[in-house]
């Protein structure tokens, strides 16, 4: 299959060499770099396209376009920026079928999940369009009473400039929206780098940006791997950065950004725990736990990978999980009956399967999920491992998995459950299942995580902040907090009195 045979990809997006183009200054342009990476369908293992490894020269061209467009875009005002954003949302709805298919082919997530992502993408653009409009009012310029009538004081919110945005492979288009929406709402212009594994839908969105007449340079897209991202961090034309990726990638980029005194948000890994108490609605809890662990093929930073079960119900609850797992259809993600697709790459498959083997060698009991049969596709079946009570050294307990693997341990008391849940170097999310509101509240207060779900797992709303503590990152995406990433507050103080200062004279 050539790139031009893919829905959402047309001839103008592909160079004469057959490689995809970059999207810079409102046009699809050939990369200066002559190095390319194959883009693989994780189900068929066939090559979908070749994408450029954008060079520092390519990054600087994109950043220059963003710099040139930035002042006018910020000056345009929030209401006009919102018009463009709502037009993009409308086109995303109209292109939902083709973009969902392209996302599934490139990423491997089941098609209905990709459709759900597209709905969230449109909602994200509409939400931040409303916040953009509010920047024309009190949100953008707030009067502050400092208790002294001689001074009139305001706080203005101004665009942070050019934003460099680095995305992960698990939600290619949705993460684009999580970062681009607040950035352009705030008056920033952008240079965006999708994951080297999943560039297709992000590049395809360039057509939507052209269709709605978004001014050239407001959003620019470069493809590539680590060196391309490093060039973005190093670029003197990029003012603020946001990265979603692994803790290792975040530490590297964050240290370089700090050396250059650049503002940077980091949304990194997780190893989230769910606590199931004996008084929970157990059938509902079992489905939510499976959803939290196996949704998006287990490739979510907030995925429920550690399950803590009251010891009095452990065997019965595990039986419920196994019954759900046995019904899950694993296969072609374009088949609407499929509930679990392949992971992103052969490398990731080997990593997860190797981690499971090591966990078993260290004493974990594999109670569900056999090794996948050899054949096409980077599949990992839904897997449940059980650890002995108190085992905190097993690799499945300590390390992020990023695959459809659930690690189970029991607890004897409410206090022990919270302590076990917090026994992680990560602090992104946690879930608690109970019919006791006071118990839910105690757990919510006790969990050292940026997100806590009560009697559910993984629901995400663009109005709420997303991010965590410890090695899960720095800062927050989404909500009003996401908007603040791309704004710089400026205090303005005006002396109103007719009287002289009277200090020197």
TrEMBL record:
Keywords: NAD, Oxidoreductase. Residues 28-492 form the Aldehyde dehydrogenase domain. It comes from the Eukaryota. The keyword Flavoprotein does not apply. Transmembrane segments: none annotated. Pfam families: Aldedh (PF00171). One of its GO terms (molecular function) is oxidoreductase activity, acting on the aldehyde or oxo group of donors, NAD or NADP as acceptor. Belongs to the aldehyde dehydrogenase family. This is Aldehyde dehydrogenase. It comes from Hondaea fermentalgiana.
């Amino acid at each position: 299959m050539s790139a031009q045979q893919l829905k959402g990809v047309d001839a103008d997006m592909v160079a004469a060499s057959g490689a995809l183009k970059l999207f810079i200054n409102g046009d699809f342009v050939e990369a200066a770099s002559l190095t390319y990476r194959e883009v693989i369908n994780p189900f068929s293992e066939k090559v979908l396209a070749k994408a450029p490894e954008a060079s520092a020269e390519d990054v600087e061209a994109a950043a220059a376009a963003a710099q040139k467009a930035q002042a006018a875009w910020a000056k345009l005002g929030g209401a006009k920026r919102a018009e463009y954003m709502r037009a993009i949302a409308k086109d995303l709805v109209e292109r939902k079928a083709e973009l969902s298919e392209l996302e599934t082919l490139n990423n491997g997530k089941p098609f209905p999940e990709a459709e759900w992502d597209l709905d969230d993408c449109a909602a994200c653009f509409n939400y931040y369009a409303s916040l953009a409009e509010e920047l024309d009012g009190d949100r953008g310029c707030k009067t502050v009473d400092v208790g002294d009538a001689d001074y009139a004081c305001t706080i203005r919110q101004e665009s942070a400039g050019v934003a460099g945005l680095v995305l992960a492979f698990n939600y290619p288009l949705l993460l684009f929206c999580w970062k681009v929406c607040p950035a352009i709402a705030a008056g920033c212009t952008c240079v965006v780098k999708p994951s080297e594994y999943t560039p297709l839908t992000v590049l395809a969105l360039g057509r939507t940006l052209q269709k709605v007449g978004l001014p050239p340079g407001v959003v620019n897209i470069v493809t590539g791997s680590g060196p391309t991202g490093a060039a973005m961090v190093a670029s003197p034309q990029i003012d603020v950065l946001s990265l979603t990726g692994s803790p290792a990638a975040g530490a590297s980029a964050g240290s370089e950004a700090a050396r250059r005194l650049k503002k940077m948000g980091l949304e990194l890994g997780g190893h989230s725990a769910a606590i199931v108490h004996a008084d929970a609605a157990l059938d509902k809890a079992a489905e939510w736990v499976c959803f939290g662990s196996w949704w998006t093929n287990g490739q979510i930073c907030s995925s429920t990978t550690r399950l803590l079960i009251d010891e009095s119900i452990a065997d019965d609850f595990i039986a419920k999980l196994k019954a759900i797992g046995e019904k899950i259809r694993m296969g072609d993600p374009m088949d609407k009956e499929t509930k679990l697709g392949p992971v992103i790459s052969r490398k990731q498959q080997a990593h997860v399967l190797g981690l499971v083997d090591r966990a078993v060698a260290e004493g974990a009991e594999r109670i569900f999920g056999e090794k996948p049969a050899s054949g096409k596709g980077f599949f990992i079946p839904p897997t449940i491992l059980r650890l002995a009570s108190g085992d905190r050294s097993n690799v499945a307990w300590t390390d992020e998995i990023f695959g459809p693997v659930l690690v189970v341990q029991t607890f004897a008391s409410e206090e022990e459950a919270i302590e076990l849940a917090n026994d992680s170097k990560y602090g992104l999310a946690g879930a608690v299942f109970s019919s006791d509101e006071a118990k839910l509240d105690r757990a919510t207060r006790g969990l050292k995580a940026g997100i806590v779900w009560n009697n559910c797992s993984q629901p995400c709303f663009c109005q709420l902040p997303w991010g965590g503590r410890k090695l899960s990152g720095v800062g927050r995406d989404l909500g009003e907090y996401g908007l603040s990433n791309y704004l710089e507050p400026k205090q303005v103080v005006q002396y109103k009195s007719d009287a002289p200062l009277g200090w020197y004279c």
